[in-house]
Amino acid sequence: MENNQISRIDRYTCKFENPVMEEKYINHLWVNRSKAINFILIIFPIVFLFDSYDLYSRAGFSFNIFGPVIFALITLSFRFVSDEVKSKYHGFFIGTVFASYHSFQMYVMLIVMKDANVTALTPGDLVLFPFLGVAIFTLFPFNLIPSIAFFSFFALTIAPPMFSLPGVTTAHIIFIFLTLVLLVYNKWRGEKSSRSDFAKTVSIDDTKNLMQKTLKRYFGDVLSDKMLSDDGALSGENKWVTLSFTDLSAYSTIIEHMSPKVAVEFLNEYFTAMHDVIEDHGGHILNYIGDCMMVVYGAPEEMDNHENQAIKCAMKMREKLVEMNSKWDESELSRYWSNHGIEKITARTGIHTGSIIAGNIGSERMLQYSAIGDVVNVASRLEQANKEFGTDIAFSKEIYTALTKDLNSEAKSQGSISLKGREGETQVYSI
Q1: Residue 340's pLDDT is what?
Q2: C or N terminus of the chain, fewer CB within 10 Å?
Q3: What tens digit of pLDDT does each residue of 173-215 get?
Q4: Distance of CA 142 to the CA centre of its chain
């Protein structure tokens, strides 16, 4: 459904034609007006008691507290209703409360004040009527037909008792009537404007949420949030991080007999499972290179003990791959590789730590958050070194010395390798 259809407003009821949109708006009203309404429900009985006492005292009658107390209890009872009911029916309840109050006041004016021949307005009236008007026109959700009926009730019930009071002229009645008509008209315009603004806000929010959802799908939660907060800049910065490369063993053999559809489904299932593990350990996937995942720990957000987290993540990924092999055996997906001498799917991970330059790299029209530095080359080379040492997790001495006691005790030295561009030998450890 198009946005203009969803946000269409009925001219007479001032309701959204789409019921979902209407429910959103009512909930929006309650969230924004709940504090004001709860305040009204506390203060209004007090104002009512004051005005009632004022009317009785002017008429020279003893104050009858029964009516005001009943009204106060009815008003306060709404505070104990569930929020779900409040949000849906608060307009109806407020209208009912005000109508009940008005009926009671008309009774007092017709029976008590008429008999006492009371003519003058008092401070009680001057306080009440502005308060009543503000409460109604601020908090009462507008619906043209009920509102016309509601205010007609006010007008028709106000006129007779006021005409019965000495000193009240037709001009007074006309003034009150025209005031009510003007208030209804302004409320109608205001309600339409409020709903139109709400529809625009919803549309903007929906677009923003879609953009955020899309960004997170391609860049992950952390990076997408940082991109949105930083206007996508993510300028280069030096960071001490841990970097890992994870690659599937015998990848070419695994997928060479798969159809493109099956190959993509297999890789997506594998990457999804690994992504969850990486995210749980605070890692951020910088890039997918075929079957290879390039992961950084400590960027774009700072992270304590990222060396340990990277090792723990690699070990958990290894455990997860064992579980996935059992699943693939049951689904017979494993036939694609078992028929070619591969018993199970395994992966190799290389891990190194050090200083990198991290930031958005690319052209002005297409950028990619990435890492530059010797750490990248060493981690990649350590992933390949697993083939030489017959291991599945290989890491440098810099990682080994940063490990906690429990992980350090599990680590084993595998020897050393010579890396292009680096002086001396690089000690290799596994776990």
Answers
A1: 84
A2: N
A3: 777 777 777 777 777 787 788 888 888 888 777 766 766 676 5
A4: 28
C-alpha span between 239 and 397 (Å, rounded): 19
Q: What is the CA radius of gyration of the chain?
A: 37
Dist CA 295 CA 97 (whole Å): 62
341: left (phi over 0), alpha (psi -120 to 50) or beta: left
Q: Six-digit token pair at 404? A: 């906690």
Beta bridge partners of residue 430, listed in sequence order: 394, 412
Taking the CA atoms of residue 43, residue 175, residue 144 and residue 95 in that order, the dihedral angle to the nearest 10 degrees is: 20
DSSP track, 129-198: HHHHHHHHHHHS---HHHHHHHHHHHHHHHHHHHHHSTT--HHHHHHHHHHHHHHHHHHHHHHHHHHHHH
Report residue 45 as tokens.
Answer: 């009985």
On the question of pLDDT at 121 being above 60, the answer is: no
What pTM was computed for the model?
0.54
Q: Kindly report the CA angle at 139 between 138 and 144, in degrees rounded to 5? A: 85
Paired tokens of 207: 């677009």
The CATH classification number of 221-430 equals: 3.30.70.1230
Mapping DSSP to helix (H, G, I), strand (E, B) and coil, where does residue 347 land?
strand
Contact 299, 241 (CB under 8 A): yes
Q: Please state, in angstroms and rounded to a whole number, the distance separating the CA atoms of residues 318 and 246.
A: 10
- Rounded distance between C-alpha atoms, residue 247 and residue 291, angstroms: 6
Question: Which of 152, 76, 167 is closest to 118 using CA atoms?
Answer: 167
Q: Mean pLDDT over residues 109-118, rounded?
A: 56
Query: What is the helix (H) or strand (E) element at residue 395, kind and residue range?
Result: strand 393-396
* pLDDT bracket for residue 352 (50, 70, 90): very high
Say which residues have a Cβ less than 8 Å from residue 422's Cβ, sequence separation at least 6.
374, 378
d(CA 400, CA 415): 13
Extents of the domains making up the chain: 3-212, 221-430
Structure tokens at 358: 């991290």
Q: Which two tokens stand for residue 126?
A: 């001057």
Q: What is the spatial distance between Cα 417 and Cα 426, in angstroms, rounded to a whole number?
A: 5
The letter for the amino acid at 340 is: H
Residue 203 burial by Cβ neighbours in a 10 Å radius (0-12, 13-18, 19+): middle
Asked if omega into 300 is within 30° of 0 (cis), the reply is yes
Comparing CA positions, the residue from 137, 50, 26, 39 lying closest to residue 79 is 39
Task: Tell me the H-state helices in 304-350.
Answer: 306-331, 335-338
